[in-house]
Amino acid sequence: MLTITRPVLVKVRVTDDYKKNLATELQQTVSKVELELQHLEFQARKLNELAKKNPTGAEAALAQLEQEKQRRLDTRAKLLDKIKEVGRLVNGSEVVQGKVESIVEVKVGDDWRQLMGVEIILEDGKVAEIRSLQPEG
């Protein structure tokens, strides 16, 4: 017999509360990104003022700020798309939240697919189901 760790897929069953909490979390992240964008805009204005007085090196710094700004704009757009997706989630459907590991004992003759096929289903923050996926055939 041998003890190993195995991956366990964690899924969330969609409910109104889940959608509300996810949308709130995403909106808070959007707000944080918008604050970062404002800060970058402020830094760019300061750099522009310095560039007028001493242009050496300011161009590279401005280009880097512009890259950071573009990265934040892309992130914000992706988050806003995710917020729209939340509205399209169907109650009762399941979405993958992530993976964790569990410990399992393996012995000669065990069905490997059955040992590895485990899912945890969460509903409103509680474990609603633990599934051991049976191999087909």
Task: Produce the secondary structure layout.
Elements: E1 2-13, H1 16-53, H2 58-88, E2 94-106, H3 112-116, E3 118-123, E4 126-132
Parallel strand pairs: 1-3
Antiparallel strand pairs: 1-2, 3-4
Helix pairs in contact: 1-2
Task: Please supply descriptive tags for the structure shown above.
single chain; 137 residues; alpha+beta; four-stranded mixed β-sheet; 28% strand
Provide a concise account of the structure shown.
This protein has 3 helices and 4 strands. By secondary structure, the protein is of the alpha+beta class.
Characterise the protein shown here:
The protein has 3 helices and 4 strands, in the order βααβαββ. With 137 residues, it is α+β, with helices and mostly antiparallel strands. Strand 3 and strand 4 form a beta hairpin. The chain is elongated.
Low-confidence stretches: none
Shape type: elongated
Judged by helices, strands and strand pairing, the structural class is: alpha+beta
Spatially, the strands of the biggest sheet line up as: 2-1-3-4
- Largest sheet geometry: 4 strands, mixed
